[in-house]
Automatic annotation (TrEMBL):
This is Outer membrane porin protein 32. InterPro entries: Gram-neg_bact_OMP (IPR050298), Gram_neg_porin_domain (IPR033900), Porin_dom_sf (IPR023614), Porin_Neis (IPR002299). Homotrimer. The lineage of its organism: Bacteria, Pseudomonadati, Pseudomonadota, Betaproteobacteria, Candidatus Accumulibacter. It comes from the Bacteria.
Length: 389
């Protein structure tokens, strides 16, 4: 109740309008950890190391959000969410270096479901967190393998679509469906035509089906980046863009978990198909994303006043014009609950990258860069505290 009163007061002062008829809630997560990470540096030898605080969150991304609704009558209501990320270890976040929007949207909801417009989660965001024993953490295995390989089926920022319209169905006997389309709104032009504002180029599409009933959860997904722009290099080195010049990047995912009470098991498989031309390792015409597949397995179990989780995953890259590569990793995490809102945790992750793979590492180390190297392995270990409000 106090949160709602505070949020109402803040909203009223900021807008200068009455909000008495709206139900507004302020919420957030404050999470930080100490992490030490090390890995072989690759060509030239040496070690890459990081030691410090991960201010963006260890088990959950730090955020400050406002959400609310207003009853409009006949079962119809207006809904909105404004949610922003921040780092608590330095002077960045809301009001300092600008807003970092996790999601911000407005819409209408009723017995038929919800339609919303703005920056929103694609179906993959929740699905990948559902079916990983380490959840959506930056020390998670699926989380790191998917984000470094360029997938939008990930519990990270690539699964948030800009300029998006969504439909989320009501729950039908355990089944919930979600559809999202993010307009590309790309300003395209070349030497042969005027600039045009394309609806389809660089647009993003997502379809998801979730079944959650009793001990079983299943997620099925399809996501696509439509007609990815392809730079067209003309003589003289000038780069121009050809509307519709690229192929779509398509992704599929199937994941599930089953709770036996004494133990919970997890598994997932996903694939990415990119038919755009690739020149050199990791250098693509407009995308730089290789075709790939990822599979993961995991298990978690209650232990004392907390939960212990263990996860393993493997990424395989299928390069069109270069040697294929792979990365694999495993991780473990224990969360000890001090209360319903506060937890202590410790975690460890290890990744091994082949010479022709991508430099996968734990994302909490060095702001996600500089530790992982091709052809080498790396690890991260850390401990922290999380509070939700």
């Amino acid at each position: 109740m106090n949160k709602k009163i505070i949020a109402l007061a803040v909203s009223s002062l900021a807008s200068g309008v009455a909000v008495a008829q709206s139900n507004v809630t302020m919420y957030g997560v404050v999470d930080t950890m100490y992490v030490y990470s090390q890995g072989d540096a690759g060509i030239g030898g040496g070690k890459n190391k990081f030691s410090g605080l991960a201010g963006g969150g260890g088990t959950a991304g730090n955020r400050l959000g406002f959400k609310g609704e207003e009853a409009l009558g006949n079962g119809l209501k207006a809904v909105f969410t404004l949610e922003y990320g921040l780092n608590i270890d330095n002077n960045s976040g809301v009001g300092t270096s600008g807003l970092n929007a996790r999601q911000q949207f407005v819409g209408l909801a009723g017995n038929w479901g919800t339609v919303a417009l703005g920056r929103q989660y694609a179906p993959a965001f929740d699905a990948t967190a559902n079916n990983d024993a380490l959840e959506a953490t930056d020390l998670g295995i699926q989380s790191s393998l998917s984000v470094y390989s360029g997938s939008t089926i990930t519990p990270n920022s690539p699964a948030r679509f800009n300029n998006a319209i969504t439909y989320t169905s009501p729950n039908w006997g355990g089944f919930t469906a979600k559809a999202i389309y993010g307009f590309g709104e790309s300003r395209l032009g070349d030497t042969w035509s005027d600039n045009v504002n394309s609806v389809w180029d660089n647009g993003k599409l997502g379809l998801g089906l979730n079944y959650n009933n009793g001990p079983l959860n299943v997620d099925l997904l399809y996501q696509s980046r439509l007609q990815v722009e392809v730079p067209n290099f003309v003589p003289g080195g000038t780069a121009v863009k050809a509307p519709g010049g690229g192929s779509s990047i398509n992704e599929w995912y199937a994941g599930a978990n089953y709770d036996f009470k004494v133990v919970k098991i997890y598994g997932s498989y996903q694939a990415l198909d990119n038919n755009n031309s690739i020149v050199g390792p990791d250098v693509g015409f407009g995308s730089g994303i290789e075709s790939s597949n990822i599979w993961t397995v995991g298990v978690s179990a209650p232990l004392g006043n907390g939960v212990f989780g263990l996860s393993y995953g493997r990424l395989s890259l299928d390069r069109l014009n270069n040697t294929s590569g792979n990365s694999w990793g495993w991780g473990a995490m224990y969360q000890y609950n001090l209360s319903k809102r506060t937890a202590l945790y410790g975690a460890y992750s290890y990744f091994d990258n082949s010479r022709n793979s991508v430099p996968v590492q734990a994302q909490v180390a060095g702001d996600g860069e500089g530790i992982g190297a091709r052809g080498e392995n790396n690890y991260a270990v850390g401990a922290g505290i999380r509070h939700s409000f």
